[in-house]
Amino acid sequence: MKKLNLIVLASGGGTNLQAIIDNIEAGKLNAQIKAVISNNSKAGALERARNHNIPAIHLSHKQFVTPEEFDEKLLSILRENETDLVILAGYMKILSPTVIRQYKNRILNIHPALLPSFGGASMYGIHVHEAVINSGVKVTGVTVHLVDEVYDHGAIIVQKCVPVLNDDTPETLQQRVLPHEHELYSKAIQLLAEGKVEIKENKAYIRE
Fold this sequence. Notes:
By secondary structure, the chain is of the alpha/beta class. The protein folds into 2 domains: about 1-105, 3-Layer(aba) Sandwich (Rossmann fold); about 110-208, Rossmann fold (3-Layer(aba) Sandwich), CATH 3.40.50.170. Helices cover about 35% and strands about 25% of the residues. The strands form 2 sheets. Strands 3-2-1-4-5-6-7 form a 7-stranded mixed beta sheet, with helices on one face. Strands 8-9 form a two-stranded antiparallel sheet. A hairpin with a 2-residue loop joins strand 8 (about 195-200) and strand 9. It is globular. The relative contact order is 0.16.
C-alpha cells in the first residue's frame, strides 16, 4: 500500500492538522505530510508543523502581483512534493479553478455539518453551528468531501452524525463536533490510501 504524500493548507490553529500528525505518528494513517502551507504567517498550524519537523510555508496572495502567480507557486510546491492529496484544514481561502482542475479528486475538505445542509460561502467555523442551532434540527455532524469548483459541493467521502442537545449553544456544539472531525478526517485519508474510494459522476463509493 502506497504511503500518500500530503500537503496541508490551513489558516488557523490547526487542530485537524494535529490529529492527522498524531495518527501518522501512531501508525494509524499510511501517509506523510510533506509540508504545511498557510496564508497566515502567525497561524498555529505552522507552529504545529515546525514542532514535528514538517516544512512550514507562509504563502499568501499578498506576496504576488497576480492570482496567477500565486497559483503557479502553489502548484510548483505541490509538484515538487509529488503530492497525492491536498488537505484543507481550516483554510480560509478559496482555491482557484486552475488548482482544482489540476488536482481533480485529490483535494479534501472537512465541514462541521452534514452537507449539503449548512454549506456555502458564509458557512464556516462557528457560523455553521449557529445556523444549526437556529434551525432547530436535532442532528448535525461532520462531512469530509472532495473539493470541486462549487463551494461545499464535491463528492462526499464520509459523514458522521452528532446529536444536537436541547441546551447546546454554538460554542458547546462546536466543542462536541470537533473530536469527530479529528477522527473522520484521518479515516477518509486512510480510505483513499487503501484505494477503497471510487468516484463516479461526482459521487464517492466505498469498497469493502
